[in-house]
Amino acid sequence: MINKDLSTLELLPKRHWIALGLTCLFVVALLILIPVKQELERRTFAYQLPLPENTLQETQQIAGPAWNMQSIKPGDTLAQLFVNEGLSAQLLYQLTQTEHGASLNQLHPGDKVGFQLDEQSLQSFRLEKSLFESYEFVKTDAGFESKKIVLEPDVVETFAQGSIDSSLFEAGMSAGMSNNIIMQLASIFGWDVDFALDIRQGDNFSLIYQEKYLDGEKVGDGDILVARFENQGKTYTAVRYDDNQGYAQYFTPAGLSMRKAFLRTPVDFTRISSRFDLNRKHPILHRIRAHKGVDYAARRGTPIRAAGDGKVIFAGNKGGYGRVLILQHGSSYTTLYAHLQSFGRGVRVGKRVKQGQTVAYVGSSGLASGPHLHYEFRVNGVHRDPLRVRLPQAKPIDPSQKENFLHYAQIMVMRLESHIYGDYFASR
């Protein structure tokens, strides 16, 4: 009888086996979720923040004269804007003496101001610093009163996935992702994947990220919460985690930092025009000269990022290298950036820089056939291939938080996989 039952099971269609496997997966997920209920309650995954009672939209619905809204342009001053509306400097002074009057002392291009006039008498004035923060000054019998209006957006989670045919940007846009989220994704995996060299057709990604809405309209992006990137058959998974001090980092599901001590590539989304080659023929000198670095072809003025935290030990001209920047990272590592157009603001010898900080801009100074970055990586003074050298790892998750993180990461990865495989089976 047992053998007969086993034979019957062997005859089941493949899709039945898949369905059975998925059922087991969700049962395991349920068992995992139970012991971490408190953690789930502390970390809300899909949530909406309530709007304050006195929102800007409600203010706009109050009956009264129409608002004359203007965007601040470079060179604009509030004093001149008041004059343009036929209002006195004395009136502006009254606004600055209210509770939130100090907000009028700093006006920036892109801010918006609004006048609500009644027979050339100012009834209300508004300063909008952003979609989420504004100040309103309302006329009363005693003069003017002010209030600060802060809007909290609805934050919702969005799942996206895509497969790369030509570039990460094109695949991300096709998946409905904004430029900001695409750049976040590249930044998270930028220590492991060289987006100028390593990308192949068929590489794929999936992620859960936040979007912000006001009154049903998208107004911005939040953070990527969990993401997966498959590059040349190797899979990388990253989970965002906020520690007890509120500092957020990305870790592997095992608690290792996604961040390395050095970036793999100091410029974004460029192509490699020349690799590390000790027998390369120089394109201008036309003789064999060792090429002890990597050349990244990029437009003139493209920002160059510091590969790691360090100190500037050279910033000047160096023969055929043209304009050069050299950074010291600890006692063993140095990175060199050559053929520069210019240095970043405040970058000079003795200054400390942070990983990812813009330290220079692509140019063609020195013996260069065109604009590009020549990048060298040295360990104890010896040149190493920047594309192949093993990069030292940053610190893993703090041991005191590791248990909580492992539970949280397991849940987030399962949520991501439920989207991936849910979509996969829904399409069969």
How would you explain this protein's 3D organization?
The chain is of the alpha+beta class. It has 4 domains: about 1-30; about 55-150, Nuclear Transport Factor 2, Chain: A (Roll), CATH 3.10.450.350; about 155-260 and about 395-428, Nuclear Transport Factor 2, Chain: A (Roll), CATH 3.10.450.350; about 270-385, Glucose Permease (Domain IIA), CATH 2.70.70.10. It is about 25% helix and about 30% strand. The strands form 4 sheets. Strands 11, 12, 14, 15, 16, 18, 20 and 21 form an 8-stranded antiparallel beta sheet that branches. Strands 1-2-3-4-5 form a 5-stranded antiparallel beta sheet, with no helix packed on it. Strands 6-7-8-9-10 form a 5-stranded antiparallel beta sheet, sandwiched between helices. The longest helix is centred in the last third of the chain and has 25 residues, at about 400-425. The two termini are about 35 Å apart.
> What is the overall pLDDT average?
81
Order of helices and strands: HHHHEHHEEEEEHHEEEEEEEEEEEEEEEH
Question: What fold name stands as the CATH topology of the largest domain?
Answer: Nuclear Transport Factor 2, Chain: A
Kindly report how far apart the N and C termini lie.
34 Å
Q: Which parts are unreliable, with pLDDT below 50 for 5 consecutive residues or more?
A: 34-62, 275-289
Helix content: 10-25%
> What proportion of the residues form beta strands (DSSP E)?
25-35%
Oligomer: single chain
Number of helices: 9
Radius of gyration, in angstroms, nearest whole number: 28 Å
Q: Structural class of the secondary structure composition? A: alpha+beta
CATH architecture of the largest domain: Roll
CATH hierarchy class name of the largest domain: Alpha Beta
Largest sheet: 8 strands, antiparallel
- Beta-strand segment tally: 21
What is the 3D shape? Answer: globular
Count of structural domains: 4
